[in-house]
């Protein structure tokens, strides 16, 4: 790690910490800093420690997981536009949870996690299958086919919850948000973060080499198959656990690595830490905006991130020449 | 079978299917009717109050809405496919439907904020402006003439606009999540007689306009140069056709919300049977679009017992696999 990246990372950690604090104190009612250790009333203390703190932590970790999932996908698919929500992994996790609940599996936090992991894995396998054409893996098909597949899966989710009259019940799942976050979820998210971050760091050299063109990376001794399996496991874990907590929030995995790469063009290894931290920071700020922008209403987080991410996607497609790998 | 026999046969088959679905939609439902009684009521010869009420008041509006939206979306899709020379183009994929939806939602939001009641003609104007806006954005992105990039830009536009729609709608009806779906996925939200009659007039006007443009559409299937060679003012015709395609999509969205993929499917299926001659392709696509929507409406109202589904969800659940299939059978160079 060079001196410069060190400075940038420390600065980003500071930004994330400030964002966590802002997300804890901000909301329909703003609290003062001293409420954290000496709450003015018992209720204020409970709101802060039982609602605000787990929510901020969940947002920070979800953002990190989604951004990492995006970076991993973009690296292995050699395509700057890949993202777990674009190719339908998030939607698959979502559908699995809705179907599971309707089949009578009560959505306890643990059940929600494994259901959503299974859904994410199934959707991922289907999408990879779709993007295999006669000439091997085709990244463009992965994108377009994945987007449509994602829309297909989410309209089935809507339809299922519509028929069974449960749109209110699944609202958080369908539009995204952290309003129900608690410490058990934070714990599970923490495990996911450790595994995903650890996996990414462990394989960072090989993943960086994979970013080179395929002949060079094979020549340098990278096993594509093994890395692909590692990437699939990490992406499914990251996307699945984020959906289990926050519902279907898209486009962070697309936008954050893009923006980081725009500011500081570099390899997988050199951008890993920055992407993870920026993901957390972005998610915290988005959550804060969702809570505070309009009083008494919580904005749908999936819409917020779709607007930001969609604009990024549009700019890349419209104004960058070699962006899509076509 | 030679093409000469196949083309008229396909048309005849589609007309039969159209009539069959038309009657089926009026006949089946919670209250079962006899086909004969329905026919009698349709020509005005029935004196049975229940039959008349069910046919004309309960079922006919939904049927009319299905015919208007299905036909318009199919025509709009066909024109866009010819104009962009891209068989995967469609007003919903290119983001035009989302733009029209957003226009309607913004105007409704503004009107409810200042407590005004707006007529449907204002909504039409708003939807049209929204559609033009997203079409303009799309043109901005498609200057590189890469078919797949245009499609991706459309997907991006749709994502952004749908995000804005979701926000405004949840702001408007916080506890009525189902209404949100109208503008994201499509559903017949207004089945009032007057509204539908106005829309029917618009639809007929557009159909007449399209029928005048058939020769130039035929010419454009040869490509811009070929069309120029046989004496078509390509620039002007393209603009006219684009306007008609956007108007068709706009008017369909106003009736049915953002219904996706009908405009993609209908022309593509028909092309396999009748080829690219507009004389057959255009009417066949119109019939096919109507049939798809009527079928979806039939499934939406009958298949799930008491709870009826928004028709747009049925359409997207049925048509998206076909789009994926098309995507993978098509070559992109």
From TrEMBL, chain A:
Major subcellular location class: membrane
Pfam family, one: FecCD
GO molecular function: transmembrane transporter activity
Tagged with keyword RNA-binding: no
Membrane topology: Multi-pass membrane protein
Transmembrane segments annotated in the record for this chain: 7-31, 51-73, 85-106, 112-130, 142-163, 183-203, 224-252, 272-289, 301-319
GO cellular component: plasma membrane
GO biological process: siderophore-iron import into cell
Subcellular location: Cell membrane
Domain of life: Bacteria
Record family assignment: Belongs to the binding-protein-dependent transport system permease family. FecCD subfamily.
Entry protein name: Iron ABC transporter permease
Lineage: Bacteria, Bacillati, Bacillota, Bacilli, Lactobacillales
TrEMBL record, chain B:
Annotated Gene Ontology cellular component terms: plasma membrane
Membrane-topology annotation of the record: Multi-pass membrane protein
GO MF annotation list: transmembrane transporter activity
BP term (GO), one: siderophore-iron import into cell
InterPro entries, alphabetized: ABC_BtuC-like, ABC_transptr_permease_BtuC
Keyword annotations of the record: Cell membrane, Membrane, Transmembrane, Transmembrane helix, Transport
SUPFAM superfamilies, per the entry: ABC transporter involved in vitamin B12 uptake, BtuC
Transmembrane segments annotated in the record for this chain: 60-80, 92-116, 122-141, 148-168, 196-220, 241-266, 286-304, 311-328
Cross-referenced Pfam families: FecCD
Predominant localisation class: membrane
Location in or out of the cell: Cell membrane
Family indicated by similarity: Belongs to the binding-protein-dependent transport system permease family. FecCD subfamily.
Protein known as: Iron chelate uptake ABC transporter, FeCT family, permease protein
